[in-house]
Amino acid sequence: AQSVTQLGSHVSVSEGALVLLRCNYSSSVPPYLFWYVQYPNQGLQLLLKYTSAATLVKGINGFEAEFKKSETSFHLTKPSAHMSDAAEYFCAVSYSGTYKYIFGTGTRLKVLA
Amino acid sequence: DSGVTQTPKHLITATGQRVTLRCSPRSGDLSVYWYQQSLDQGLQFLIQYYNGEERAKGNILERFSAQQFPDLHSELNLSSLELGDSALYFCASSVDGNGADTQYFGPGTRLTVL
After folding, report:
1. How far apart are CA B49 and CA A105, in angstroms?
2. In angstroms, what CA-CA distances link B9 with A67, B68, B88, B107?
């Protein structure tokens, strides 16, 4: 069955440190992959997406993610965390022709001063 | 602001009641999605409509139904409400609803069932 797994429901990093949020998908067909961010009391907002073009995808707010087919991963990174990055991050996967989006369980990022 | 609007913002009701949540997509978007977000189940895809037609169904209960009208706004109807239906309900829209589309989320409707 197609699924997406986010390792770590809570991640804490110091301000200025590297942010690494993990996402793995399970599928035998090429996926479309997304990272969304949700700030408190708001809806989700797209950070970046992979749709079979470049495997290294750059998004908003300095985030990027790399699609690694051999590892079935799409981890989200940011070189230097900022206090404003504190939010919940969701990885999502979909597939051509299915019209369904599967979201991971989310990772809450805390940034320590 | 994503351009997707949802009303009402908050809804408090009793068990057994029926409510209707409304969503207006971004201008030009033909596809609307509904999601339920709760602490214990995370973000669950409920249903997708494209230009008035149901296109995909997720974990939507039989007590729930939705439709998309000719002006492309959508309504999610929840009936025979139970305590466990308390959640945030999000609507999202996209241009044509294919797998590569970016979804734009509304601010959500917080439903509390007492």
Report:
1. 24
2. 37, 20, 10, 8
- pLDDT top residue among A70 and A2: A70
Amino acid (1-letter code) at residue B92 = A
A28-32, B7-11, B32-36, range with the lowest pLDDT? A28-32
**Per the structure block, which two tokens stand in for B35?**
């999601």
Paired with B40 in beta bridges are none
How many Å lie between the alpha carbon of A4 and the closest alpha carbon of chain B? Answer: 12
Nearest to A84 by CA among A35, A41, A40: A40
Name residue B20's amino acid.
T
* Distance (Å, whole) CA B9 – CA B89: 10
Nearest to B55 among A36, A49, A99 (CB): A99
Residue for token digits 């979201």?
A: A103
Measure the CA dihedral A26/A29/A34/A35, to 10°: 20
pLDDT digits (tens, 9 = 90+) for B20-71: 999 999 999 999 999 999 988 888 999 999 999 999 898 899 999 999 999 9
CB B97 within 8 A of CB B69: no
Å between A34 CA and nearest CA of chain B: 8
